[in-house]
Please model this.
Amino acid sequence: MSGKIFKDSSSIYQDQAQILLDYFEQAAEKIVKDEEQIEKKISSLEVERKEIKKELSKVILRKWMFGIFVLPILYFIMKQQTLKKKIAALDSNIKELQKQFEDIFRDYKVKKLGIAYIPIASQFKYKDKSFIVDHTGITKESEFRLQRSKQNDLLAEKIAEIEQMSKEAPLVEGSKDVETIDTEQYSQSMHNLNQHDYFGSMERALKTISNCMEEVDVISVNLPLVENNSEYHNYIKEHATSDIPYNAPVLEVFDTKKYNRQISTFQDINLLKDNLSKNTAQYEEVLKGFMMTMANSVQAISALKVASADKIVFESNKVLFKILKSPYNHYSPVLEQAEIERIRNENFNYGDSVQNYVPFQLKNSSKVKYNLYTDAWVAEDGSTTNMPFGIHQIHEEIVAPIVEHLMEETRLARLKIYNHIKDQKLSYLNKWHQDTEDFYGRNRTESSDLINLMRTTMGEYIASYNTMISLQKTEETMKQSNGSLDSTVVDAKGNTVEVFAAFEMQSKEFQKVQNEFENYIDLLKEDIDLKAEKFEHIDYYEASLRDGNSRDSAIASKDAHNLDIRRKPLIAVNPLFAKTSELPPMPSVETLTTEHISLNLPLIATEAISEIEED
Model:
């Protein structure tokens, strides 16, 4: 930058030309102003001289006219002398002003034009940056705190250790230095967690680095540094210059050596800080690189650890589910579709099943076997399925045959019990239906009587209303005629239309109430019939004992897609197993856990480094 004086100029040379132009412009304005002032005064005096000369001519003329009179002529002679003196004085003043007009200085010249420089700020460099220190007092002093670690060797050692650990991570962590950490803030279901060698070593190294960064020597200096892109900084960039010509005059208006000691301290501390780094890179670059290394390492290793744990759990669950499927006999749901659908719709009602119940039985030819290579279940006919219909071997091969033989031995005794229960329930139901129909009949009769009574009352109300209206009209007519009986005759005016409309509206209201009451009675009847049907049901015990588990399995296989999301993985074992298993409580995961897992550490480190560089 070359510097300049005026804001609108482009260089110091244009400033010099502007200064010359302004100088001669001011000189010309001064000359013109002085000339105009003197000319104005001369013109005023000449006007005054002209008026006096006119008056002098009049005085001379009057003097000759009154020449025979002594007194008047003496007066005019004296006045003539006075006017001549005034004219002489005015002539003298005019000459003086004309001389001043001629003496106005007009010979303005510029023999030499020079430029002097005043130091207002000093610029000193540090690395690839520079700082500007203000000497004018416009900028306030700012405190700069410079820090360096007291244990730089240990800090460098731990940084190298972390960098090495970030390059190589073990597939399986060791357990020599297991550390228990508190995880209550992340989950109320898991208050403690064991941290093994790798992550434990990394955490201890990070704590050591943190301690080293906290134990620092602090040196502060106060400097009036000009803020970047501030108004004063922009003024310096536009008007000041650091390129001073040789032998140019420099005027030390401000104290430029006031902050030499602080600047020297600042540079010495930063030089010492650079020398403390054992790497070829600068100290700040080492820390910046360490921040990025840690962010990338922790993000990647944590993600891999979570993914590997999920993978281990997923694969171990697959093996466990295959083991849990081994106690089941598996059948093709396609080949046994009809039998499975029949048992699914079975209600085990004694009244329906005692004569024609067929025990649930799947064919051996419908069994499927697991193919380890294709991860599918294969039937004898070569058809495959991924979700076979499973019946537990204990139920199919032990419980069902035992129940069937035991129940056969006591069949006659149970039939008597079933028939006795049936007779009792039928007796109860007949009495129930009889009382219910009686209740319905009485309610319908009472409701019809109530509706008829309401209609009769409505008719009586309308007739009474018409009589009242006639009486009111008769009373009003008698009042108007002062009691004349002739005027009491009131024409009967029928209001059949109004009465019919009122009756029709009221009838609709009655009909609405009646319909609502009948609908309510119908709902009660449906509810009673439903409960009666449920009460009529007699559980066919031996059938449900033998095939109840099979029916539950058939229902569960159909409703598998409606299961809770935590139960759906258990469908791989058996749908009934997934439906009836007792699950542990849902693990408690705090919001803080989700927030920390979703953090993008490399992005956070990059933004932090950018903020540091901007500052």
About this structure: The longest helix spans residues 411-480. Confidence is low (pLDDT under 50) at residues 276-281.
